[in-house]
Amino acid sequence: xxxxxxxxxxxxxxxxxxxxxxxxxxxxxxxxxxxxxxxxxxxxxxxxxxxxxxxxxxxxxxxxxxxxxxxxxxxxxxxxxxxxxxxxxxxxxxxxxxxxxxxxxxxxxxxxxxxxxxxxxxxxxxxxxxxxxxxxxxxxxxxxxxxxxxxxxxxxxxxxxxxxxxxxxxxxxxxxxxxxxxxxxxxxxxxxxxxxxxxxxxxxxxxxxxx
Length: 211
Ligand code: NAI
Fold this sequence. Notes:
- This protein is α/β, with parallel strands linked by helices and 211 residues long.
- The protein has helices at 8-26, 34-41, 45-53, 67-77, 93-100, 103-106, 137-143, 155-168, 194-209; strands at 31-32, 59-60, 64-66, 84-89, 109-116, 125-126, 129-130, 132-133, 148-151, 172-175, 188-191.
- The radius of gyration is 20 Å and the shape is globular.
- The structure holds 1,4-dihydronicotinamide adenine dinucleotide (NAI).
- 1,4-dihydronicotinamide adenine dinucleotide is lined by residues 89-95, 115-118, 121, 134, 152-155, 157, 161, 176-178, 192-194.
C-alpha cells in the first residue's frame, strides 16, 4: 500500500493509534467503533474515521474496526514490522537514562553500542554496554549495519558527529541535542525536545487559568 501522500499530521497521530490499539489487543478487544476509540484516544470520531480511511477498508459500517488488523497495518505503515539497530552517542545524564530504559528494545529498536568522547567514561558500563571511544564511531557504523544513531551530546559537537554518522552510512538520527542538524535529504532526523513540550504545558496551564 502506498502511503506517500498521507499528511504529516496524520503520520504524527499514528503512533498514538498504534499504542492504544496495542493496549486494546492486550485486553483481548477484537473490534471497536470510531466512537469508542474516540472516547479513549480523545480525537473526535470523525477525525478517527478520516485518519483511518487513509489506509483503506478497515472500518465497516455497524462493525467498527478490527483491532488486530488495524494494529498490524498501522505497524506496517510506521515501519514497525522490522527491527532497527541503534547506537547511542553521549553517555551522560540523558544517554544513560535512555540506555537504561528497556522499552525501546521491546518496540523493535535495539541499542547495540554506546559511545562517548570522554576518556574517563570509556570502558565504564551502562547495563551490558561497555562505553566505547567515539573515535571508533564511523568504523563501528560501517561494520555493524547500524540504522539509527541516538545523539545525546551537547549541541556544540552535534553537527560534527552527525557529519561523521552520515559519512559512515547512518540512515536515521534521533536527535536530542538542541540544534537543527544539517544532513542530506536522504537522511532522516527526528528531533526530540522535552523543553518544547514543557512550553506547551505552560501555555495550556496559562490558558486554563481563566476557566
Ligand atoms: P551530559 O554532559 O551529562 O552528557 C553529555 C555526554 O556527551 C558527556 O558524557 C560527554 O563526554 C559526551 N560528549 C560530548 N561531546 C561528545 C562528542 N563529540 N562525541 C561523543 N560524546 C561526546 O549532558 P546531558 O544532560 O546528558 O545532555 C546531553 C544533551 O542532551 C545536551 O545537548 C542537552 O541539551 C540535551 N538534552 C536534551 C533533552 C531533550 O529533551 N531533547 C533533554 C535533556 C538533555
